[in-house]
Every structure is written in structure tokens, then in C-alpha cells.
Amino acid sequence: MSVITSPGAPTPAVAAARERSAELEHLVARNPAGYRVLTGDRPTGALHLGHLLGTVANRVRLQNLGVEVFLIVADYQVITDRDDAGDLPATVREVLLDYLAAGVDPARSTVFTHSAVPALNQLLLPFLSLVSVAELERNPTVKAEAEASAAQGRRGTSGLLLTYPVHQAADILFCHGNLVPVGADQLPHLEITRTVARRFNQRYAAARPYFAEPDALVTPSLTVLGDDGVKMSKSRGNALELRASEDQTAAYFKRARTDADRTITYEPERRPEIANLLRIGAHFSGTSPEALADEVGPAGAGRLKALVTEAVVEGLRPLRARRRELASAGPRYVADVLARGNARANEIADRTLDDVRGLMGMRY
Ligand code: TRP
Questions:
Q1: CA atoms of 47 and 344, how far apart (whole Å)
Q2: What CATH number did the domain enclosing 272 receive?
């Protein structure tokens, strides 16, 4: 889940994770086969530009480097903070179309859903015994999410919201994922996963550690703001969906917030909305935000928006064409990709759960 984080100086934990991530990038480039990535998304809607530039493109990059990638469509996470999960089959299909269109290759990457992999979910039970309620209640991301959900007038924090970081430990550890590309807001969860792995080993596999403690990969990525100037997210309704048409894309940037200064300059702290447009435009036209600002200069926000629209429309053209092609191929193709992913995830999860039961003395 992504919470809305305010920009500013990174905390020491985030700074440390970034440093470690830079090291990891070298290690991964040298030995991609030594890593298995597990990450994913909550299927709350079709993916948007923030997903692509924040995480999805990075996963495709890792896949193309030769790292084995597991992508979880975390359907049980949808109900952590809402009663109505919406039309899940339709949403899951949209997310899959976005993955595939963005370059996720089902021959190399495994896409699966929580609910189709019972053994993964069963790992939650022993894992829950390894953490205290106080540890769960301290998790800053869960706290922020609980507050956000209370602010929307919902009754108290659900047990599933409080424990979903442990569920994520199961998501990661069932397949022995050792590299987790995440945003900074997910770092506290990764700490819980590391704690679960460590305590499991101490308690049940002291002689020969069974779970490796995974690393977070916090790759420099773009935090994309929505048209209201706040971090792009489905739930705020400020997102540009990847599947949007060219007209919708143009309309989206037309209504994007700017500021009162005429001349375009790249000043991320003082002019976040303009900086956001410059970063998006620069990303898709292969230039830097500074250079793009110089190019537009006195022509102002209208000109900037026109350039950004053009760059995004051009940049997303292949993805959108592929998406349309996949969508019109009928429901079978995407359903088959998911069925194969689920089968593979089940095979691995069954093996891990069997190992875990053996180590815990529960194989009868
Ligand atoms: N909570 C993550 C998000 O919304 C999705 C997710 C579920 C995940 N399980 C995970 C991410 C395991 C990393 C590892 O973005």
C-alpha cells in the first residue's frame, strides 16, 4: 500500500537502505541468477503512471537483467482497509494487462494471487507467533494507513491491517525471495520480514538457517504527483491510468496543477507541481528536468503541459498498443498467464510449507 509521504530529507533508515541498494545494484548486475525478486501490488484498480515510473519499469529492468521475478497480486490486502473489494476478477485482469503491456514476460516472471496459493497463507500462522502485538502497533506505515482509514470514517483498524506486514513476510519468504524492490514506505514491513526470518531460524533451524533475510532494493525512482499536486494514487482519484487514451492523457495534463510563476524553472522544493511535470516530461523524452525547464522557460506552463503530453503519449504508445492487443486477444490469454503463475507459486509454497512443518515438528 502506498501512503502519502511528504517530500523532504530522508530518515537515517531510508538513507541507509539507499546506500545498501546502490551496493546491491552492483551485486545483482554481476550475478543476476543469485537473486530472486518478490514484490507486487494490491489490485485496487488499473495501474497508473506512478506505478510505472515508481516500480513497474524497475521490475521489468530486473527481469531483463536475468533476475527471477515473482509478482504478487495481493488480493487479500485489498480487504485490509475496506469492506468492498470491488470487482476483483476485472481488476486483477486489468493489473495483469498492465504488467504484460509494460514488459513483464510470463516466460521469465511468475505472476500470482494471494488467494490462489493456500500454503503461502498458512505460513502466516507460525509467522504471527514470532512477532508481538507491540511490534505490529509500532509499524509507522500501518499506523499511517490506520489513520487514513479512520479519517475516511471507517470503524477501527482491522486485524488484517495490523498483521498484513507479517502476511507480506509470507509473500516474500514462501519463495525465498531475497531482493524486494520497494518504496521507502515499505521499509518497516521489510524489517518485519527480516525479523520473522531471523526468529524462525533461531527457534526452529538454529543449526542450519532456513530462511535468508531479504534485502530491500530502494532504487532511485520517480515519485509522481497527481493532477492535484499530491502523490499519485488510485484512492485519491488523481491518477493517469496507463490504459488511458491519448485524449484522456491530454485532458489530464491540461487540468494538472501548476503555480503562478510564468517562467518555467526546475525547483523541486519551491515548485513541486512544475518539477513533477518536468520530471515526467524529461523521463519520456530522455532529457533532464533542468534541460526541459530551460527549453520551455518563458513560454510558461501551457507550453510545458503540451510538451509533457506529447512526450507521455509518445512514450506510452508501445505499451498502450500492446495492451490493446492483449486485451482484444480475449480473456483466455491473461487467464492462462495467471493460471500458470499460480500453479508455479503453489508448487513452491507447498514445498516451503512442508519444510516449515518439518522444522517445527508438525509433520505427522
Ligand atoms: N503492499 C504492497 C503495495 O501495496 C504490495 C505487496 C504485497 C508487496 N505483498 C508484498 C510488496 C510483498 C512487497 C513484498 O505496494
A1: 24
A2: 1.10.240.10
